[in-house]
Amino acid sequence: MLKQIYHIAVRECGILRKNPIYVFCMVIFPILCILFFTSLMNEGQPIEMPIGVVDQDNTATTRSMIRTLDGFQTSRVVARYPNVNEARQAIQRNQIYAFLYIPKGTTSDLLSSRQPKISFYYSSVTLVAGSTLFRDLKTVATLGSAAVGSAKLSALGKTSKEITTILQPIAVDLHMIGNPWGNYNVYLSTSMLPGVLMIFIFLITPYSIGTELKFKTSRELIRMAGGNIHVAIAGKMLPQFLIFLTIFYCYEFYIFYILQFPHPGGIVPILLAGLLAVLSAQAFGIFAFGLMPSLRMSMSICSLWAVLSFSTSGATYPLFSMSPMIEALAQLFPLRHYYMIYQTSIFNGYSLADSFWNIGAMIIFIALPMLTVNHIKTAMEKYVYIP
Question: 248: Cβ–Cβ under 8 A, 6 or more apart, which residues?
Fold first, then answer.
């Protein structure tokens, strides 16, 4: 049996070498995707996003507020506008993401304790940019009022400790656990890129089996396996498994040990998650082809399943906040369980025992081909390829 698997694997290596689509979809495109997505957010957060200012007061206090705003890492004041209409039009033309409006008399109202109002407008079409700029604009408004309040209290003879107590009665001690830098690359590349790699596995697996029917070589494959479909599938999938596993491990080494993404869980969960991801994606591709022994239909099912995985993984929007039906259906996607293993045992460092359900679910995915493998044998021996 091992000798038969070896000979089929050698045959498959020849097929992989002759067909450029395998080289591109198994090696070149995955590597390009890894480099593209990780370098796309290499700064961790968007920085120096363009904003505008409408300063109709134009005093030393308001100019100081604008300089403070410009000094933030994520904001850059690129234009000043005479009125709100022009600033609003600049947002609509995508020239700026937000603007700060300071009406005339703001400083005098501050000094006389008349509670002036300043306004800030921001676009949330891009959610990350909108929420980040909202934080900066709110911070600069708070700092501006605190500066005036501090000056007034100092003039009244208050000590710095008394001023701090009056302006901020409750001190906030903030701790961001796991990702203290607020690095979006850590959040997105660890869930998006495994999904992208699994798309290639989902598609290549039924494609490679379907081409045996298309090019009328399926009977030769069964003959080499001695009529044993399990041996035929094992030998055919072995070279692909080794290549995809190597790419997946290279991806994990790159993000965790070169880019230094946090991974307090250690190397064992990393290796286990990568192994389960590749095996479950391959197994689902085999299962899908067994359900519908058609090159076109099986690849369509796999592509649909792979794309839906991104929405149901829970990486960008909490799954428990979705519809209960969607929450239940999400368990049918391997990427969801990979992400939970990553989140629980790699990112947060909990024991693999806490990921027992997700590991078990991926093992069930790996066993799925047992349900349809005999159907694949029938297709290879009797079916005629229909374009």
Answer: 194, 197, 274, 277, 278
Work out the burial of residue 341: count CB atoms within 10 Å of its CB; fewer than 13 is exposed, 13-18 middle, 19 or more buried. Answer: buried
Residue with tokens 């929420």: 131
E strand or H helix at 40:
helix 29-40
One-character DSSP codes across 231-283: HHHHHHHHHHHHHHHHHHHHHHHIIIIIS----TT-HHHHHHHHHHHHHHHHH
- Which pTM value belongs to this model? 0.83
The residue written with tokens 């997105």 in the block is: 188
Q: Where are the beta strands (DSSP E) in the chain?
A: 49-55, 75-80, 98-102, 119-122
As a whole number of angstroms, the distance between CA 34 and CA 169 comes to 47
Which among 15, 48, 34 is positioned nearest to 194, based on CA atoms?
Answer: 34
Residue 22: strand pairing partners: none
Q: Which residues 6+ apart lie within 8 Å of 192 measured at CB? A: 37, 310, 315
Residue 40 vs residue 354, higher pLDDT: 354
Sheet containing 49-55, strands listed edge to edge, beginning at the edge strand earlier in sequence: 75-80, 49-55, 98-102, 119-122
Residue 323 φ then ψ, to 5°: -60, 140
Identity of the residue numbered 338: Y
Residue 24 Cα distances to 184, 189, 331, angstroms: 28, 21, 31
| φ, ψ for residue 383, nearest 5 deg | -75, 150
Classify residue 120 as exposed, middle or buried by CB count within 10 Å of its CB (0-12, 13-18, 19+). Answer: buried
Q: What is the pLDDT of residues 322-362, one digit of tens each?
A: 888 888 899 999 999 999 999 999 999 899 999 999 999 99
- Residue 67 to residues 106, 148, 332, Cα–Cα distance (Å): 17, 16, 52
